[in-house]
UniProtKB/TrEMBL annotation:
Catalytic reactions of this protein: L-aspartate 4-semialdehyde + pyruvate = (2S,4S)-4-hydroxy-2,3,4,5-tetrahydrodipicolinate + H2O + H(+)
UniProt-annotated catalytic positions: Y152 (proton donor/acceptor), K180 (schiff-base intermediate with substrate)
Molecular-function GO terms, alphabetical: 4-hydroxy-tetrahydrodipicolinate synthase activity
Keywords recorded for this protein, A-Z: Amino-acid biosynthesis, Cytoplasm, Diaminopimelate biosynthesis, Lyase, Lysine biosynthesis, Schiff base
Enzyme class label: lyase
GO biological process: diaminopimelate biosynthetic process; lysine biosynthetic process via diaminopimelate
UniProt main location, coarse: cytoplasm
Recorded name of the encoding gene: dapA
Protein name: 4-hydroxy-tetrahydrodipicolinate synthase
The organism of origin for this protein: Streptomyces sporangiiformans
Length: 311
């Protein structure tokens, strides 16, 4: 079944769990020029490569996309450029989360105008609001904009969880449709899956198969910036009933995922290190982030090459 413009509706290909933004999503890095300016041409080339590699959704200006250090104008420009590059071949989800509800709404309206298909909003950080305030924040955002909303639950960065009970209540809102799950609470996730129709996307690459197998909708992967075809192959194998093959492919990602996400460096830094080494669009990271050192880059490239050759 096709959506508008020819995009494929993957909702019915596996379980009954909805997949409003596709199943294979990449948390795309934001390419910069050597001088640190936004590289829109590079973003278009990278987006095209990711879609050709099997991504049916791209998440822009998230954690991996260096949202804290890109301006509001740059975020909107990025959405417009990537939309122009991929057309209707992939869904575009724009990161709009901030610590300020008013600012978050402003970013959401700008993303909608720029051509995004959905919004990704992280729990307000630093102020650590209680659950009733977290719920009110997301409801105000969902009420203000016409786009569907992905709740981004990553308490390790924000300091505040979206508790399962809060998720269940928020699922009643017609425009709150999905979750990017980085809470590392599989029991809590299963509770929400059992009680709602929310589309659950893992934001933890090591859980790509595990969450999918229990009724998740797919993944939003940082590692897919460098290996989009491999992560797509995991869920394709599972969809085909080849569960042993899916498990094998997931296990093959362990060394690279561990280095990219567990090296002590942010995934933005490690993804850009590999992409730059492969002469693909990436560029520098913006301060306060710093580039990976030579030893780290060598280890990342070795793990990447091992994964590519193991397929």
């Amino acid at each position: 079944m096709e959506l508008h413009g020819g995009a494929v509706d993957t909702t019915s290909m596996t379980t009954s769990r909805p997949a409003p933004f596709g199943r294979a999503l990449c948390a795309m890095i934001t390419p910069f020029t050597a001088s640190g300016a936004l590289d829109l041409d590079g973003a278009q080339r990278l987006a095209d490569r990711l879609v050709a590699g099997g991504c049916d959704g791209l998440v822009l200006s998230g954690t991996t996309g260096e949202s804290p250090t890109t301006s509001d104008t740059e975020k909107a420009e990025l959405v417009r450029a990537v939309r122009e590059a991929v057309g209707d071949r992939a869904h575009i989800v724009a990161g709009v989360g901030t610590a300020d509800t008013r600012h978050t709404v402003e970013l959401a309206l700008a993303a909608e105008k720029a051509g995004a298909d959905g919004l990704l909003a992280v729990t307000p950080y630093y102020s650590r609001p209680p659950q009733d305030a977290v719920e009110a924040h997301f409801r105000e955002l969902a009420d203000a904009c016409g786009l569907p909303l992905v709740l981004y639950d990553i308490p390790g960065r924000t300091g505040t969880r979206i508790e399962p009970e809060t998720m269940v209540r928020l699922a009643e809102h017609p425009r709150i449709t999905a979750v990017k799950d980085c809470a590392y609470d599989l029991l809590g996730t299963q509770k929400v899956l059992a009680e709602t129709e929310l589309a659950y996307y893992t934001g933890c690459d090591e859980y790509a198969l595990a969450l999918y197998a229990i009724g998740g909708s797919g993944y939003i992967s940082t590692v897919a910036n460098v290996t989009p075809r491999h992560f797509r192959a995991i869920i394709d194998a599972f969809d085909a009933g080849e569960t042993d093959e899916a498990a094998r492919l997931q296990r093959l990602t362990i060394p690279l995922t561990e280095l990219m996400m567990g090296l002590g460096l942010p995934g933005t830094v490690t993804a850009k290190a590999i992409l730059n080494s492969l002469s693909l669009p990436a560029g520098p990271v913006r301060a306060p982030l710093r580039p990976a050192g030579r030893e780290a880059v060598d280890g990342l490239l070795a793990a990447f090459e091992d994964l590519v050759s193991a397929r």
